[in-house]
Design brief:
Radius of gyration: 20 Å
CATH superfamily: Glycoside hydrolase/deacetylase
Bound molecules: zinc ion
Oligomer: single chain
Strand content: 5-15%
Shape: globular
CATH topology: TIM Barrel
Distance between the termini: 42 Å
Order of helices and strands: HEHEHEHEHEHHHEHEEH
Length: about 260
């Protein structure tokens, strides 16, 4: 066994092999919703509010990476931030051009197909394709946006099956590719529902709640079917920024220690 490992190490060493995750640090996946500026919901922000939040994150030293890049281990060593936006509200289209594009950011969009072209409150398929041309990636967020939690699974499994199995075909038509990432509507799903989403051909599925949980995609123990995301609510912003500030300060201290001249 030892001989085998030595041979393997030598072979890999000779080939100049480096682990794909060598420079991959954790990411905190943020989940935004609407940019109406009406304050009718704790999930809603004005353009200016969102811009100042993102600028504040950058000024604390955080970098933004795309969700697909994070999944591929292209994150850099320190905590990076990933932006996702759920649902496909009509405000997302102008928000991309006013908020995200000027800052060079490409959020990942989770869309439920029933909403597309549905009303003036949702995005059109034309707008979605325009955002794709801008380089935004997209995934599925159920079909009708009905809950997929334990209660619904027990009392209305047919509805949960629809949410898991139905979005791929219409989204493939809208996106021009089959989505590989899934975000549960309302952010929760019990293990049998996770298995159902897995059987529908997705590679990863994402939860969402108010908890702040950095995700390490290089961790073999990471659950592919319930990857945490932090919903950005108006009420949890102070806590989120306290966390980021604390994280950044700890990182600065480590850097200073590393650069300090060693005392003989
Ligand atoms: Zn949603």
């Amino acid at each position: 066994m030892i001989k085998f490992l030595l041979t393997l190490g030598l072979t890999l060493g000779l080939a100049g092999w480096t682990a794909p995750w060598a420079d991959a640090g954790p990411v905190l996946i943020l989940d935004y919703h609407t940019f109406l500026g009406t304050h009718t919901s704790s999930l809603d922000f004005s353009d200016q509010e969102a811009i100042s939040q993102l600028q504040k994150m950058e000024s604390l030293g955080f970098r933004f990476v795309g969700l697909k890049d994070a999944l591929a281990g292209k994150t850099g060593k320190e905590l990076s931030l990933v932006l996702t936006i759920d649902d496909g509200n009509h405000s997302v289209f102008p928000a991309y051009f006013k908020i995200f594009k000027p800052l060079g950011l490409k959020p990942f969009l989770f869309i439920y197909p029933h909403a597309v072209d549905l009303s003036r409150f949702t995005m059109t398929s034309k707008q979605i394709r325009e955002l794709e041309k801008e380089g935004l990636d997209m995934g599925a967020h159920g079909y009708f946006h009905d809950p997929m939690g334990a209660y619904t699974w027990e009392h209305d499994p047919a509805s949960v099956r629809t949410e898991a199995l139905k979005p791929a075909a219409p989204l493939t038509k809208i996106f021009g590719y089959r989505p590989t990432l899934f975000a549960y509507p309302y952010g929760v799903a019990p293990p049998p529902v996770q298995a159902l989403v897995r059987s529908a051909g997705y590679d990863w599925a994402f939860a969402a709640n108010e908890k702040i949980v950095p995700v390490d995609f290089s961790d073999p123990k990471l659950d592919h079917w319930l990857v945490p995301r932090t919903i950005v609510y108006r009420w949890n912003l102070p806590r989120l920024f306290r966390y980021l500030k604390h994280y950044a300060e700890r990182h600065d201290m480590k850097e200073q220690e590393a650069q300090a001249p060693s005392v003989p």
